[in-house]
Amino acid sequence: MIKNIVTLVCLFISMQVSAQGWKVTFQRSYNDKVQSAEDPLLVFADKDQTIITTDRATQSQAKYPYETYYIDRNNAAYFKQMNFSADKQLVTKDLALLGKSTYNLTNETKVILGYTCKKATTSVNSNTIELWYTDELGVQGAPNELGQQLGFVLEYVRNGNTKITATKAEKIKRIPNHVALPKFDEVVDGPTYQDIVWKSRFIHIPIFQDEQINFVDQPKQDSILRFASGTVILKKVKVPKLDTNSQAFVQLIEKSNGDAYDRTGSVFMIAEDQATSFLDGMKNGMQTLPKYSNGDGKEYPGMVRTAGFSPVYELMRFFTPFGVSHFNDRLTLKGKTWQDSSIYRQDVSEFLSVMSGKEVYIGTYIGNYDKGGHRVSLELTIHPGSSRMASPQVMSIFNTTNVMEMGGQTYATFFSEEKGLEISFDLPEDTKNVQLRYITTGHGGWGNGDEFVPKENTILLDDKVVFSFTPWRTDCGSYRLYNPVSGNFQNGLSSSDLSRSNWCPGTITNPNYINLGDLKAGKHTIRVKIPQGEPEGSSFSFWNVSGVLLY
């Protein structure tokens, strides 16, 4: 009788112990240096569930947004919950996640917090993962999704240098109600969850969505401003006040809507730092803007800075390929598939100081004479916490890309004169580490035009050469599959294969950042010299160059 009572008591105690849960605290380290400033990671576990959270989250002190992870062991389900605020959450569920990884179980052991742990290894995205897990806690858990069914993972090691290590293991009677797996009223699918969470991490400003850029007598008028017979579209967008260490990107998606040719394109922003802006000329006629003249007998409106006028900031120079998307069915190449669009994405962080907290006009130009033209989608994304610093001061000096080509702005052929392009500007105070953000591309002619002939660009500051180089692209053949109606020659080459003066059909032209050093307050002069080729019959050469001072 006594023996039976003792047995029952022992069984009851055993059941009580097994019914208990655990609270395990983890710390992160890199190269064995503890990241002490981080919120400690907490894992709660019992036989029914595992919760991965942080110390501050359990006390409602975590900084939003943050994620919490739940494993429902009875139903082999894995939940991720993104907490955007106290009253806004998003949840997704994965029934298969826990069984996705395979592990190599080894005989190696080591002791962590007094518990004997075994070693298992796996690989995730070419990263080598070591997991040290124990069976001695009687429950399963881990500081992330890996190893959740091995036992209780007390240390996670990635590539030998990044670690998550248990520092404390406490028995608890039960998992607190405010931490335990809740009942979720609404669950979204994984791709939806990832998309919403990803977009929540940065500022997303849509500008154009599948807008047409074409050549018509009377372009339609709606919320988008259209100029130059529809070849230029413009929109006012509001940019919130930004941290100085943010990083910004513009992204453009382009498809042919009927135009088969490679065309010059530009994403630009109206400079509004002076009394007259480029937008005034777009509305009132380009001839109302200040004109540049260097003795070649022509006048070039809206291209250079003057007292009272600033040309546009060129954010991105791009070139459309030969008919991507619209003409994909015109030629079939064995073993090759045409791309369905061109995507251009570029860092434009240096312009954040003239965007932050303002309403700005951002536009896109594609030079074409086609009724169908092109379709484009444009967005601006701004990402916090980057190490890339925006320039505190930005000054537009010149932009010879004639974005209002179909609205009376002429091609920049003035490099045929010795003077080339010469602009004076005033600095209000002594400045340090001045840079010239310079974009250049050569155009025109056929085989002997500047598009296909390397030409040296020389930049002079106050009559002294500060930079000289020959802009040239030899990688144009890499973009063949963006060019379904590129001309093909008897020698087996395509027109889109040919090397060009700093551009290829389907590419961005990257800026050059030219160091001008420390400059004194007052007047300075920048001069750009390019040995522009002579006209050949009706063909002529010209250069699109843009320059912005960063200081």
UniProtKB/TrEMBL annotation:
Molecular function per GO: oxidoreductase activity, acting on paired donors, with incorporation or reduction of molecular oxygen, reduced ascorbate as one donor, and incorporation of one atom of oxygen
Residues spanning the signal sequence: 1-19
Annotated Gene3D superfamilies: 2.60.120.230, Peptide-N-glycosidase F, N-terminal domain (2.60.120.1570)
Domain Peptide-N-glycosidase F N-terminal span(s) in chain numbering: 204-382
InterPro entries: Cu2_ascorb_mOase-like_C, GLPGLI, PHM/PNGase_F_dom_sf, PngaseF_C, PngaseF_N, PngaseF_N_sf
Pfam families according to UniProt: N-glycanase_C, N-glycanase_N, PNGase_F-II_N
Superkingdom assignment: Bacteria
Transmembrane segments: none
This protein's UniProt keywords: Disulfide bond, Signal
Keyword Transmembrane found: no
NCBIfam families per record: GLPGLI (TIGR01200)
Protein name, as recorded: GLPGLI family protein
Source organism (scientific name): Sphingobacterium psychroaquaticum
